[in-house]
Amino acid sequence: MITLHGFDTANTIKVALLLEELGVEYTVEPVNIRTGANRTSAFLAVNPMGKVPVIVDRSNPKAPVTVSESAAILIYLAEKYDAFLASDGPQRAASLQWLMFQAASCGPIFGQNEYWRHLAPEKNDAAVEHYADISLHLLDALNAHLANNGWFAGDDYTIADMAHFGWMVRRHKAGLHIAERRHLRRWFNAVSDRPAAHRALDLLNGLPGAGGTKHPGNSRPIGIGNREAT
Ligand SMILES: N[C@@H](CCC(=O)N[C@@H](CS)C(=O)NCC(=O)O)C(=O)O
User: Fold this and answer.
1) pLDDT tens readout for residues 96-144
2) Which fold would CATH assign to domain 89-194?
3) CA 151 → CA 9, 85, 89, 107, distances in Å?
4) For residue range 60-105, what is the model confidence (pLDDT) as tens digits?
5) With a 6 A CB cut-off, is 38 part of the ligand 1 pocket?
6) Burial (0-12, 13-18, 19+ Cβ within 10 Å), 48
7) SS3 state of residue 164
8) If we measure between CA atoms, which residue out of 177, 191, 95, 103 comes closest to residue 143?
9) Does the domain made of 2-84+197-226 have the CATH classification 1.10.10.10?
10) What is the pTM of this model?
């Protein structure tokens, strides 16, 4: 049995989506990061970094496996179940490239964009503009790639798509727009339409304390209601 420690966050969405796609048995242990539940000694014992998501895989009760960092979790699960990631060759390389691009470039920049727009205690126009500019550039890069590829790794839906879905669901919170980027919008709607995406978002939206607001841009739930009109 797998336990997912998480909340209604961009990084948890990725993992919940993969678990739903795999159809494996798992439970969610809610960690309300907005009330500091991720800084308790109990949670720090699970992940000393104090961040969600984390999974604990107790398939072998004598040797439970704990994995944090959403990209590492996606790779761990894809390899364990031999699904949504090619075992070798160019398609695996493409999946990993776009997965890493999400984890190392898009995620951190979109997070900074949200912070400087809505959460920083002092307004800083230069920071707002800086992160907004880079975010637009990243969205354009995703859109350009998807102009020639059905999915991030080409013909097959893989963990790279699940990774990008997390922040795209929460895009309103960082003021990101995809309506004018038609390839990105087409891709986003295709993932949104998957039954596993509905189940994952419903599950996370239903966690106790989910949907809390720190700023007006956060008031929108992370549900499928965010599907873009075509
Ligand atoms: N690189 C990590 C980032 C994880 C992360 O930043 N998680 C956020 C929520 S999406 C969190 O736990 N924030 C709480 C905090 O840092 O206090 C990943 O991809 O999993």
Assistant:
1) 999 999 999 999 999 999 999 999 999 999 999 999 999 999 999 999 9
2) Glutathione S-transferase Yfyf (Class Pi); Chain A, domain 2 (1.20.1050)
3) 23, 13, 17, 18
4) 999 999 999 999 999 999 999 999 999 999 999 999 999 999 999 9
5) yes
6) exposed
7) helix
8) 177
9) no
10) 0.94
At 221, list the tokens. 């739930």
Which residue, among 15, 66, 73, has the nearest Cα to 44 in the 3D structure?
Answer: 66
Q: How far is the CA of 6 from the centre of ligand 1 (A)?
A: 10
* Count of H-run helices and E-run strands, the chain: 9, 4
- Domain boundaries defined on the chain: 2-84+197-226, 89-194
Q: From the CA of 51, how far away is ligand 1's center (Å)? A: 4
Please list the residues that pair with 2 across neighbouring strands: 26, 57
10 CB within 6 A, ligand 1: yes
Q: Is 36 left (phi over 0), alpha (psi -120 to 50) or beta?
A: left
Task: Compute the distance from residue 55 Cα to the ligand 1 centre, in Å.
Answer: 13
Q: How many residues does the chain have?
A: 230
